[in-house]
Design brief:
CATH topology: Jelly Rolls
Protein name: Phytanoyl-CoA dioxygenase
GO molecular function, one term: 2-oxoglutarate-dependent dioxygenase activity
Number of domains: 1
CATH architecture: Sandwich
Structural class: alpha+beta
Strand order of the largest sheet: 1-7-4-9-3-2
Shape: globular
Order of helices and strands: HEHEHHEHEEEEEEHHH
Low-confidence stretches: none
Helix content: 10-25%
Radius of gyration: 19 Å
Oligomer: single chain
Distance between the termini: 29 Å
Strand content: 15-25%
Number of strands: 9
InterPro entries: Phytyl_CoA_dOase-like (IPR008775)
Mean pLDDT: 94
């Protein structure tokens, strides 16, 4: 369950940070190797086939799969959650006291009938967007989207965003989601090849477009947040799984289980950096940049 490849750990660049702050999104080409792409495709295809079996997760009305708790559901994808080339964006932005609070695997085959109008635009975070009063609201989490299919052309169920909208609390929309309404100004379909990565601020206004093409859309999404925010993923029973022991300490932390932690709220609050695996991994590599507040112990 460890990495397929092991590139050196480095932080995101200042140019990348500036672009992310401006746009709320980065598209990073060629993050995964061919073997990593093939590994992910096999794993996600297997999940899609299992979902169709009796007692499986099940597909929606268009035959698509949206399966939560990505690693719990598809353990073969554990190599993605701390992949150095992708993970650097997470700890560079959020620091070391983090976990994955929300993840999912998506498979969207071709839709053959025109779908009803439905307003899909949203920010991630659920009630965070109702209950936090600041303007703009805090970032809180960053999401990694790994692509395992060819969405290099629009019209393939592409991830659609409004660049720069992450600092806008409200988006003008219809009185109810089922009312036909024009796309918001600036809406952009993101194109990507298999192995590409999309990094995005949870606050960016985004939606999934419908896939009417013959190319099946396939991706894995991982949302990271401070450990003092409760997780949505179902990870409580992971230590009892045979494959869990094969994970490294950072992967276990990201899935909600710090090997050296005592399980207390104080540990999740970051009061014990010395026993938090990601802190140790960054310290060992000399990457605890004191100019980044989230990296300061």
């Amino acid at each position: 369950m460890t990495q397929v490849e092991a590139p050196a750990w480095t932080s995101m660049t200042e140019d990348e940070r500036a672009t992310f702050d401006r746009d709320g999104i980065l598209v990073v080409p060629g993050v995964l190797s061919e073997s990593e792409i093939e590994k992910g495709q096999r794993a996600i295809q297997g999940a899609y086939e299992r979902a169709q079996e009796p007692g499986g997760h099940g597909l929606n009305a268009t035959g698509a799969l949206h399966q939560l708790s990505a690693v719990t559901s598809v353990p073969e994808l554990a190599y993605l959650i701390d992949h150095p080339t992708a993970f650097k964006y997470i700890w560079s932005l959020l620091g070391w006291n983090i976990h994955i609070y929300h993840s999912h695997v998506d498979v969207h085959p071709q839709i053959h009938e025109k779908q009803k109008e439905w307003w899909h635009w949203h920010q991630d975070g659920g009630r965070q967007n109702r209950e936090i009063e600041t303007d703009p609201r805090p970032m809180f989490s960053v999401k990694l989207a790994f692509w395992f299919s060819d969405v290099s052309e629009t019209g393939r169920g592409n991830f659609t965003v409004i660049p720069g909208s992450h600092k806008t609390n409200w988006l003008p929309g219809p009185p109810s989601r089922g009312v036909p309404w024009p796309q918001p100004e600036g809406a952009t379909q993101i194109t990507a090849n298999p192995g590409d990565l999309v990094v995005f601020d949870r606050r960016i206004w985004h939606a999934r477009s419908d896939n009417y093409s013959p190319v099946t859309r396939m991706g894995a999404f991982f949302g990271y947040t401070p450990r003092w925010i409760a997780g949505r993923d179902d990870t409580a029973g992971l230590p009892q799984q045979e494959w869990f022991d094969g994970l490294n300490p950072v992967q276990k932390q990201l899935l909600g289980h710090c090997p050296e932690g005592d399980g207390s709220g104080d540990h999740a609050w970051g009061h014990y950096p010395e026993t938090t695996p990601l802190y140790g991994a960054l310290k060992e590599r000399g990457l605890l940049d004191s100019s980044i507040p989230a990296l300061i112990p």
